[in-house]
Amino acid sequence: MNKFLLVTAAAVLSVFPVYGSEGGGREETLSAAAELLLERLYSSEERERVNSALRLGRYSHPEVIERLIYLAREDPSDSVRRVALRSLGSIGDERALPAILEFTEDDNTAVMIEAVSAAVRFEDPRVKEMLLKKAEASNPMVRQRAVRFLGEFNERDLEGFILEKLGDVSEGVRMAAVESLAGRDSSRVGEALAQVLEQDRSAAVRAAAAEVLGGVPGMKDPLKDALTDSDITVRVRAAESLAVLGSRAGLGVAVEGIKAQDYRARVISCRVIGMAGGENERIFLERAAGDHDRRVQRAAESALREMDRRLRQNKSN
């Protein structure tokens, strides 16, 4: 039998520090439900341990935190270890952060990424330092996750670092960098994204750049250039951003996109026509409302309402 399953509760608790009044004191006595979940962590069934560890994420009692840390360190199942870390992140108790940061160096990539995701729940300088290190990791999945999380800091001093990642060899990392720049309207961000829109070899990355540029003033020209991109998704994304910026330049592309094979292009095209189209384009939305894909139908119906609202407002003005 696995040694882990023979560990007694007393033995587990003996390896953890005792929380006294200096650390804020113990919380109220554990509920019967929490006690039962803690007992189930010793089950021989992996699924039961996973479910129990997940549900323990609702409790902030020190004993729960201690047991979850032990589980993340010692359980033979990587799935259980990952869920234990996820729950520690959900609880958000600062006493768990040192252990979580320890697991960001775990040999198992899935466990390590889960630890990174848990760590970003904490506002601590060590988390930012860890993410900067992970953004340079050899594993592209790790770099991608780190860059995405760094974007959530929305700090000006990180802007240059994220801009550098626009040239990463990994499509996923470049995509994360583009999305992390959303909401940043500096001129160098606009120029860098315009270059991505023109030159990146990935249509998905170019489309993301076109979308983000809709929030950057003064970027109509590169978006208009993208209306001739070889990929329909890039073209309709550029048309959508132009519509957001008050331009009808992409309306023709949107009419073309209504007939695209990719439902996502049809959905975006509906939105563009709703924002920028007039009575002459209504027929395309009416046709899209009968599309075989329900997502396109909903987009067309919403766009028709937006068009009617906008046209009424224009008449009243």
Structure description:
The chain has helices spanning 9-14, 32-40, 46-55, 62-74, 78-91, 97-103, 109-119, 125-134, 140-151, 159-164, 171-180, 187-199, 203-213, 220-225, 232-244, 251-257, 263-276, 282-288, 294-316. It has 317 residues and is mainly α. The longest helix has 23 residues, at 294-316. It is built from 19 helices and no strands. α5 (78-91) packs parallel to α7 (109-119) and α7 (109-119) packs parallel to α9 (140-151). The N and C termini lie far apart (79 Å). It is elongated, with a radius of gyration of 25 Å. Mean pLDDT is 89; it is low at 1-27.
Keywords, separated by commas or semicolons:
single chain; 317 residues; mainly alpha; 19 helices; 64% helix; elongated; disordered N terminus
Brief sketch in words of this structure:
The chain has 317 residues and is mostly helical. Helices cover 64% and strands 0% of the residues.
Give the SSE map.
Elements: H1 9-14, H2 32-40, H3 46-55, H4 62-74, H5 78-91, H6 97-103, H7 109-119, H8 125-134, H9 140-151, H10 159-164, H11 171-180, H12 187-199, H13 203-213, H14 220-225, H15 232-244, H16 251-257, H17 263-276, H18 282-288, H19 294-316
Q: Rough shape?
A: elongated
What is the count of DSSP helices, taking H or I runs of 4+ residues?
19
Structural class designation: mainly alpha
Strand content: under 5%
Q: What's the overall average pLDDT, rounded?
A: 89
Helix amount, in percent? Answer: 55-70%
Radius of gyration: 25 Å
Please trace the helix and strand order, writing H or E for each element. Answer: HHHHHHHHHHHHHHHHHHH
Counting DSSP E segments of at least 2 residues, the number of strands comes to 0
Q: List low-pLDDT spans.
A: 1-27
Main sheet: strands, sense, barrel: none
Cα separation of the termini: 79 Å
